[in-house]
Amino acid sequence: MSATTGDPLAAARTAVARLEWERGLELFEEADSSMELGPEDLEAMAEAAWWAMRPDDAIDVLERAYAGFVRAHDNARAALVALTLSREHGAKLEGSAATGWFNRAQRHLASEPEGSEHGYLYGRQSLRALQTGNLDEAVELARRTAEIGERLGDRDVRATGMMFGGMALVERGDIAEGLAMIDEAALAAVSGELAPYVTGSVYCNMIGTCCELADYRRAGEWTEAALRRGVRTTPGDCRIHQAEVLVLRGEWIEAEESARRGADELRAFNRLVHVGEGLYRIGEIRRLMGDVTAAQDLFRQAGELGRDPQPGLSLLLLQQGRVDAAKASIERALDEETSKLSRARLLPSSVHISLKAGNLDAARKAADELGTIAEVYDAPALHAAAHVARGAVFLAAEDPKEAARTLRRAVTHWQDVGAPFETARARALLAQAIRDQGDEETAALELRAARSTFEKLGAVPDRNAVDDLLAGLAASADLVSERGVKTFLFTDIVRSTDLVSAIGDEAWLDVVRWHDEKLRSLFAEHGGEEVDHAGDGFFVAFDDPASAIGCAVAIQRALADHRHAHGYAPSVRIGVHTTAATRLGRSFRGKGVHEAARIASLAEGGEIIASSDTVTSSSRSIPLSDAREVRLKGISEPVEIVTIDWRR
Is this model's pTM higher than 0.85 or not? Predict the structure, then answer.
């Protein structure tokens, strides 16, 4: 049955004019099956295919449109289609094809009078110059683009020139002039003056530049304007930029979801380099949370898609104790980078890694460069990062007074930016500078404030590092050790080897990643504090038994739900035990900890075993097995345990 009883070609043109992409594509395909479409209609059909998430079909149709314009000796339109094909092949990381189509576009326009098509050509050349660090050339080409648009009354061409020119000026250090041009282009985009693709391109490049400058206020204002006007942007890109902002604000769960959705959308549109950016962002979140395996895999995938996974990869190597490898990795990244703003993203990690490697001179050099860049671009986040870098260098140089003064400024700047994680990191360094001046009480206050933030964020490695610092303070006995009653929960995946054999290594990594993320979210929901994560299991502490038991039940039910919905989930055993224990830094010591671990080892996959006293003191009404006494390895007295029936 036909899609329409009237004229499908006329209906297709009308649908595309209304931005009804799926309907327009359906109608164009119907018309294409019964008649020979002209190159103009093929162009429109390709645009509809692209927005309908069929980019490979769009390429096929564009090649037909190009051939039609060539047959018609319309060099200008053939060049414009060739530029679009160059863009699309480049997005797929097909560099040779992208270059070939770009060269064709240049050849078609070489003998043509200057028109809008030349503006798009100059715009692409401007972007290439910007990407290779030829900033003066990028500015000049962008101005030529904007002038052509102004002269011909082509708003799309003019906005493209204003956008690329503003980006190049910002990179060159002409911040006010560059941002003024970017704002003008963004105004045209959110006001509905531009074609759909140009609207998305301008908007997302504007957001990207704001993120480079850490100017999140400007990015937020334009985003609100775009949302009010219902602007449809290039799919996925802006979710990736949004994820960067959310990470800075400490909203890591939301950031990961935004980055995942953005990467999925971009993959459907063949934007593979941008997919790599999304995967890198997720990898950074995983790294900050201590999920080394997932971070490593995500960085690898990002690198395969053309996104150099720096500085995250270097910092991950450092987390793994591979200091020399981390140093070589960050130095290589800096050697290859010429953009000042891009170097500013690498330099804080270079300072940190150099100090861990014992190279104070290299750290000081990197901190000085970062400070110079911050002065040029005058962005609050850059100033904050520069203060942290200098403070760390002063601390390593055994100048704690200057370190403390500098790091206090860093804390203030990061608080003004609204970056809780970075604020907490600066506080942890400030605490060390205060401690080195002999004031251990104030140092402990700063460390506890930092620890609270890391705990809320799920930043396990940083929280653990702060716990180690707290354990090392000896201002009073309660700073070193703290005795109290806790409820401990141990989990462990059983028969993991069998599951790996059944589904393969790659699928197993996905299972483990989901398992870790799900359990950590449930720990947080029930007030649990992750003490350790070794192998396939977790050691978690709770303030009361009811919360621990509630968490254990929620874990088993979540695993069962996932198994029902997806066909599989790891089989996990859980032990719960309330006991007195001594806290030392981030760890707990005492016989009760060993009892809790031994109780967990008695469970089978899918079981929850708890000591009877734990269940009794929880005041929870929950089905149980009959109590039984067991002897635990290494424990002299027997312990009474019960099995919790979480299925009822």
Answer: no
